[in-house]
User: Which sequence fits this backbone?
């Protein structure tokens, strides 16, 4: 049950990736506009706004995807640990049955 829930959360996370990138690009554009108002030329101010949006979108999407992939690896690690524990328990019960 826990693995199904994680898969659903991970799937929803992948579907939300464009929205996360859009939100972070908006934040980057806002930062670029704040820096751009210090510049005299409107072209440079617009260039800073676009650069801030692009850097924000790339950094945000990269961090989002890295987090989702990391969640995938941690889920695999937990599954592997559970399988190893079950195998050890089976071996222990087989050894106990062989002793009797």
Assistant:
């Amino acid at each position: 049950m826990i693995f199904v829930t994680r898969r659903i959360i991970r799937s929803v996370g992948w579907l939300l990736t464009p929205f996360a990138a859009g939100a972070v690009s908006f934040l980057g554009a806002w930062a670029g506009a704040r820096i751009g108002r210090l510049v005299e030329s409107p072209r440079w101010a617009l260039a800073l706004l676009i650069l801030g949006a692009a850097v924000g979108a790339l950094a945000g999407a990269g961090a989002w995807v890295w987090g989702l992939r990391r969640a995938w690896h941690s889920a695999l690690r937990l599954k592997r640990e559970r399988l190893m524990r079950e195998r050890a328990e089976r071996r222990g019960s087989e050894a106990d049955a062989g002793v009797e």
